[in-house]
């Protein structure tokens, strides 16, 4: 309306539209729609960097792999949480030496085995390795170096009633990342936690991550 008033004064050829109420209503709707989109974007950006609970009836498996730069040691870790966010189980495994993608794959395989042992029916899988997710979703050639591990993962995935797989940012995968890093100081075998590590130990593990960020 302010623009129309100014045009009435300064623009000789301007004529006010006859359907002013309709134009104002449309503008209000567009503004409201834009505001709702903005809120969605802000919420999405926040969720990108925080862990979220799985859908009702699902168990979430977060997995991660790590590699020590100088020694070449690799390890993996992961956590299973129910739809209330409660801890079901966690694990860490020292894999020996190799590439970080190998560690990521071992993390997924170990997590799926653990979920199968716990008789999980519906599972949501999250990893911050985009390459691993792509290999699982799109598949790979039989000659791929990780073909055997990935095929074992797919075989286990077929045993679940429903599966959701998602790539996430590292900041949303902190606990699994901490478990993976801790595995490097253990013997080359899997260690399972039926309850969360004691708070002091978990705080130390998380502090190890923040130091590296």
Automatic annotation (TrEMBL):
What region holds the RNase H type-1 domain?
62-182
Q: Look up keyword Hydrolase and say if it applies.
A: yes
EC category:
hydrolase
InterPro entries documented for this protein? RNase_H-like, RNase_H-like_dom_plant, RNaseH-like_sf, RNaseH_domain, RNaseH_sf
Q: Per the UniProt record, which EC number(s) apply here?
A: 3.1.26.4
Keywords of the record, alphabetical order, are: Hydrolase
The UniProt entry, under Gene3D superfamilies, shows:
Ribonuclease H-like superfamily/Ribonuclease H (3.30.420.10)
Q: Name one GO molecular function term.
A: RNA-DNA hybrid ribonuclease activity
Name the PANTHER family for this protein: OS05G0353850 PROTEIN, POLYNUCLEOTIDYL TRANSFERASE, RIBONUCLEASE H-LIKE SUPERFAMILY PROTEIN
Q: What is this protein called?
A: Putative ribonuclease H
The record lists the organism as Rosa chinensis (China rose)
């Amino acid at each position: 309306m302010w623009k129309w008033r100014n045009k009435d004064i300064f623009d000789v050829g301007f004529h006010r539209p006859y359907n002013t109420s309709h134009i104002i209503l449309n503008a209000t709707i567009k503004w409201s729609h834009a505001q709702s989109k903005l809120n969605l974007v802000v919420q999405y950006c926040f969720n990108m960097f925080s862990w979220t609970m799985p859908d009702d009836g699902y168990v979430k498996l977060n997995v991660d792999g790590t590699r020590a730069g100088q020694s070449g040691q690799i390890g993996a870790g992961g956590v299973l949480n129910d739809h209330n966010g409660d801890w079901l189980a966690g694990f860490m495994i020292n894999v020996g030496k190799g590439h970080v993608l190998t560690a990521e794959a071992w993390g997924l395989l170990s997590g799926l085995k653990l979920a199968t042992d716990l008789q999980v029916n519906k599972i949501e899988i999250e990893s911050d390795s985009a390459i691993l997710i792509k290999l699982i979703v799109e598949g790979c050639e039989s000659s791929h170096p990780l073909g055997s591990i990935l095929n074992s993962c797919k075989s286990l995935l077929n045993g679940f009633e429903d599966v959701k797989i998602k790539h996430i940012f590292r900041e949303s995968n902190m606990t699994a990342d901490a478990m993976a890093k801790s595995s490097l100081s253990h013997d080359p075998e899997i260690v399972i936690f039926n309850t969360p590590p004691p708070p002091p130990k978990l705080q130390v593990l998380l502090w190890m991550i923040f130091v590296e960020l």
